Amino acid sequence: MSAVSPQRPFVGARVLLGVSGGIASYKTAWLARLLSLAGAEVDVVMTPAALEFVGAITFEALTGRPVHSEIFGPGHALDHVKLARAAQAIVVAPATADFCARAASGQANDLLTAILLAAKAPVLLVPAMNDQMWAHPQTANNVAHLRSIGYHVLEPDAGLLAAGEGRGPGRMPEPETILAHVGWLLEDHASFAGKRFVVTAGPTHEPVDPVRYLTNHSSGKMGFAIAAAAWRRGAEVLLVAGPSSVEAPPGVCVVRVETTEQMRDAVAAELPNADALVMAAAPADFRVAEPAKRKIKKASRPDSLALASTVDILASTKGARRAGMVTVGFALETNDVISNGRAKLDAKDLDLLVANDATEQGAGFGVDTNRVTILSRDGAQEVLPLLPKAEVADLILDRVARLLNGR
């Protein structure tokens, strides 16, 4: 994962992080750190059982804020009301089987459950328990009831559980995944609610023979960042991804492809239902005209390879775009960046074109930052400074939101 820095929508947000008594609470310490690095003010509330697993001083050191656990005693009488009122989002990780049962029945026998009853902020519960406990009908009933009253409950991961107890579902999702879901809770979904985005990312591979291919240096980071941000902001997102080592963003449906033709077909299948197409991928421009059916040996290598053009995915969508659909293209150039980008925007009938220079340090392929210029159909030109790709993604989506809501 790339380093976490202050970012939308966490900066200045007040997040209440509840910790109940499970072994997975050791991972919650890292979640507290990620939330703080992202810019949130984190109020940690621990149940008495949680204090048996991780000390309060750990969370105080990671968040720079006091930890809360007392419900009785001088000075604590209204803590549950004050903390509930201040929170913009509440996440409980881990949410043990016991905690889910108590929350589902409306108990308020510790500070954390009392806060839930006093809160109006959105609540995310992150279950973690033995797989048999997760599969028990009573737990299933509790989770179903919690969802019915408006709580968001993450499905646990399948994987190795505590003390080698099986590999079934029950494992707490990784802190980075939880962080993304907290971001979804904090975000304003008004612009993209009910909208469907198709985003492409990464390179494509065009076979030379069964073991070699033509490609480029694209990592897919920009497209993945756009898909993640669009989902966080309320859109339904389908990401068509070429070969990439970047992890799929939470909440996003991912279709994996290999070749440019496969990417074209995947995009074409989704266009009838798309409100926006963001073509951030860098599909190969050329393919070997006749790929060898067997590995080419050094002793029999050809003097040259005949190349053919691959399909132009953006151009192929022109006749299939829905009325009012917003279409965004990308142009990575090594010279005449703006003029080449403007020509591409016009030729492919795009609403926006994101242009950048492949030769500029800190921008382009394989890095976590980018410096882009956003060109618009109406002739506008916006030059952005060097920024994290996650921030660039949101700035691009701000312009997409204006187009979607202005039509």
Offer a quick outline of the entry.
The chain is α/β, with parallel strands linked by helices and 407 residues long. It has two domains: 173 residues, Rossmann fold (3-Layer(aba) Sandwich); 210 residues, CoaB-like (Rossmann fold, 3-Layer(aba) Sandwich). It has 13 helices and 22 strands.
Descriptive overview:
The chain is built from 13 helices and 22 strands. The chain folds into 2 domains: 14-186, Rossmann fold; 196-405, Rossmann fold (3-Layer(aba) Sandwich), CATH 3.40.50. It has 407 residues and is α/β, with parallel strands linked by helices. Helix 4 crosses helix 7 (137-148). It has an 8-stranded mixed sheet with strand order 13-12-9-14-17-18-20-21, sandwiched between helices. Strands 3-2-1-4-5-6 form a 6-stranded parallel sheet, with helices on both faces.
Structural class: alpha/beta
Report the radius of gyration as a whole number of Å: 25 Å
Number of strands: 22
Fraction of helical residues: 25-40%
CATH superfamily of the largest domain: CoaB-like
Number of domains: 2
Largest sheet: 8 strands, mixed
- Ranges where pLDDT stays below 50 over 5 or more residues in a row are none
- Please state the second-level CATH architecture of the largest domain: 3-Layer(aba) Sandwich
Q: Given the C-alpha coordinates, what overall shape results? A: elongated
CATH first level of the largest domain: Alpha Beta
